[in-house]
Amino acid sequence: MIHWDNPAALWTLTLLPVAGWLLVSLERRRAQAAARFARAEALSRLMPPPAAWRTWLKHGTVLAGLALLVLAGARPRFGATMEPLAQRSADVLILLDASRSMLAGDVPPNRLGRAKEVVQWLLSEIPGDRVGLVAFAGTAMLKAPLTADHGFVREVLEEIHPLAMPRGGTRIGDALRKALDLLPASNPEGQAIVLITDGEDHGSRPEEAAQEAARRGVRILTISLGDPQQGARIPVQRADGTPGFLTYEGQEVWSRADEALLQRIAATTGGVFLRAGGGETLFGPAWAELFDSLVRRDLRQQRRIIYADQFQWFAGAGLLLLLLDALMPRYPSNHSRAKPLCSPSEKQR
User: Which residues lie closer than 8 Å to 277 by C-beta, 6 or more apart?
Assistant: First the structure.
């Protein structure tokens, strides 16, 4: 079975009929130009017509050579071999706050948008580790189980929105307990939880969950979003479709980041607390030290199929055919020298 690294190049093969038409047109124009140059009797001596098979052979050689070069450009690979694949990995579970307060705009573009940027950056920094994703508001929902396929995590990340959560509110403690249930019981030294939130909690006892994580040896990196002093209003859409802000008992609700709670959670587990303000340098030495210290273990041995590049054979054959066309004479060898236009007897007259 042939695998193509650049299959789009195969569309160029549709232009080969056009190339064949051009070759035939050039042949006709050559004959028409020669006919204007000399009379038919003289022309038959200067340019004897080649055999039809020779013309078609040269054209076919050119087209076949071009086709092989196109196939080479599509980068064919075949000839499978099995290669052992061993991966050392840590387990990182990301808890992303998807409550309505994450729509506040005190962090550009808003808290949730900034949180997603943080997750994207984090994925690029730990390419070899397994990552899971949990979105939480009034309840915690597993969006991506622990996986080395970061592309899948990026896809589901974009779908997270407060309107997609089944229950409102913010229950950080429930999200932490969900994370501990999802992490394997083995190798706690190679596990970390990344909690990304504004820190507002509605009675879910997050510090008790942090103590349980500490007993298991799982460290928590907390990342705070939002202004802890003034805070920001929470945008909503009114019943008539106009934009507005969330109200409670007639008063607009202002959401403030609870950095003190997030600092206590991180300290309880020996983790790190960070702020994710817009335009700030987010991760520094403390973050790098935490993730570098994770004990990475060997995952189950796997084998992957490797297909060898074979484009060079197609390219070589294509160039050889084009060279063969250039070396192939247009006329038979017995006509390599033009016949005299008149006989010796005619010259004496």
Answer: 107
